[in-house]
Each structure stands twice: as structure tokens, then as C-alpha cells.
Amino acid sequence: LSHFSMQKINGTEVTQNDMIMAERLFGILAHVASSELPQYRLISILGDVRKKQFRYLLETKGKKPGLVNEENSDSKRLVGENTNRATLNYTTRDFYNERLEEIKEKKKFCKMYMEDLVKEATEINMKNEALQKLWPQMFIELVRDAVIEIRNKNSYMKLCLHQITDQ
Description:
With about 170 residues, the chain is mainly alpha-helical. It has helices at about 15-35, 40-60, 65-90, 95-150, 155-165, and strands at about 10, 10-15. It has a two-stranded antiparallel ribbon with strand order 1-2. Strand 1 and strand 2 (about 10-15) form a beta hairpin. It comes from Mustela putorius furo (European domestic ferret).
């Protein structure tokens, strides 16, 4: 159980020899625990390990090449220990059910959100199509109204001057 990084047990300091003996005695425990884990738990543990490996790779990307190999072996050892530690953590059925409920709620929220987005996009598209159909007639009417308005130059200039003085 060296992956728990225990320094003392019941006031007695843990030696390297104690760790080796414990690994010989209890080494199979992590294997048995991982083989008995439910699928969902195993997937979540492996997902966490992958995230940590990716984070570690990003952190060591800019370092010297000689150091990366030494740190890479340390990283693999730490990742293995973290996997073993996570494997030995016990999760209750209630926690699992709560997690499932949380996932269901998130799925429901995402589905409703996507439906709202699709509905809004559909409405925008329908409005755009309606504008494309009406625009030619609207443009003709705007041009016609502008021509009628400025046909009589003197009355148009008086109207503009009146609008300016009102402002």
C-alpha cells in the first residue's frame, strides 16, 4: 500500500523494507479491487488518469530533454499509484445513484437547451425567408415614396427645413 504515502503507522515510522513487505503481502489487493470494480467506476478512474498524464505532458513540454526521461518514469509511477489509490476508494450505491441522477439532470438540461437553440434558429430562418420574399416589394415602395416625396423640390425643401427646426 505504498501508494498511500504513509510516513507513520500507529506512531511507528514506515521504512522502505516495510513498504516492500507490504507490497509483497498486499500487492494483489489492487489487482483484485480493480477487477471487481463496476464499469462506470473503472472508466472514471482511467479518464482521470488520462487527464493527469496529459497535464503532465503539457507541463514538461518546454523542459530539457535529459530531464524529461527521468520525470516521465516518475510520472508513470505516480499515475500508477494514483490509479491504485482511486481503485481502492469505496463508492456507495447511494453515491452512484446520486451521480446517475445528476447526469440525467444534465442530459435533460442539455436536451432542452439544444431544443431551444434549434427552435430559435428555425424562427430566425423563417423570418429571413419572409424578408427575402417581401424585400423586393418593400424596396419598390420605399423608392416610390421617396420619388413622390421629392417630386416637388420646393415643398420637399420646406419639409426638410421644418423637420430640422423642430429638432
